[in-house]
Amino acid sequence: MEPRRALDSGQARTLADDGFCTLEAFVEDHELALMREVFDRLFATRTGWDEGNQFDLAGTDDGGAPRLPQILKPSAYAPELLDLTAMAAAREITRDYFQSDALLEMDEHMILKPPHGGSQTPWHQDQAYHDPTVNERSINFWIPLDDTDVANGCMQYVPGSNHNDVLPHHSIGNDPRVHGLEVDGAEAYAATGVPCPLMAGGCVLHLPTTLHYAGPNLTARPRRAYIMIMAVPGERRASPVNNTWMREKQTARSARARRAGS
Ligand code: NI
């Protein structure tokens, strides 16, 4: 299948209305192979650990086996990612969607759900992690490097949840040592979640306030995902989000980052 490098008007409307939309084919085969090679290398070598850029999203991250390992800024360690045409396409789609020529910012990460019990990613809005003074204008491009379904933790979304403001969140297990967040009252959202099974190299797009979740990995295969976030300048909020859940964080990840001076 020829990779899709733009949203048609129906897809753009779905993204605006529902807060997410799926592109069945987004990454060319040779770029998918490169993403997998980088992914496996960076996790196998624990790249970024010392400076807090590799950590466990779902545990206390104190040196035991990680339940949901994540790498921030993989292109800082593997600059070949910056040359991907998939990255250029994500940029183009974002400019187009927000009708903005303003300078784009890019963020990215890689998440591994290990086989046989890689942790769930609880229901959350990405913006709950971010600057409380700004309403972001960004698109999250979630690219599975393995075929995903409910059994190994595909993405799930609450349609229309993107029309909410930032909702109250808490650290996973109410433990401020854990990096990951969960929206308060998550059980209420679980019933309306829509799973988005997707083949490797597809892409699902979502907005900063779209509620999303990924289940545990119950299979014998890893579930690897590469995520790019493209942003045009956000809008300053009239009043900041009261994000106590971020202010109380005390993660081993940020302690390592402070020690490394990053
Ligand atoms: Ni997220």
Molecular structure report:
The chain is α+β, with helices and mostly antiparallel strands. The chain has helices at residues 9-18, 29-44, 74-77, 85-98, 186-190, 244-247, 252-260, and strands at residues 20-23, 54-56, 69-72, 105-113, 121-124, 134-144, 155-157, 169-171, 181-183, 194-196, 203-206, 212-214, 223-236. The mean pLDDT is 92. Bound molecules: nickel (II) ion. Residues 124, 126, 212 line the site of nickel (II) ion. Nickel (II) ion (NI) is lined by residues 124, 126, 212.
Q: Which keywords apply here?
A:
alpha+beta; 13 strands; 262 residues; four-stranded antiparallel beta sheet; seven-stranded antiparallel beta sheet; binds nickel (II) ion
Order of strands across the biggest sheet?
A: 1-11-6-13-4-3-2
Number of strands: 13
* Uncertain runs: none
Order of helices and strands: HEHEEHHEEEEEEHEEEEHH
Give a brief description.
The protein has 262 residues and is α+β, with helices and mostly antiparallel strands.
Furnish the topology, listing elements before pairings:
Elements: H1 9-18, E1 20-23, H2 29-44, E2 54-56, E3 69-72, H3 74-77, H4 85-98, E4 105-113, E5 121-124, E6 134-144, E7 155-157, E8 169-171, E9 181-183, H5 186-190, E10 194-196, E11 203-206, E12 212-214, E13 223-236, H6 244-247, H7 252-260
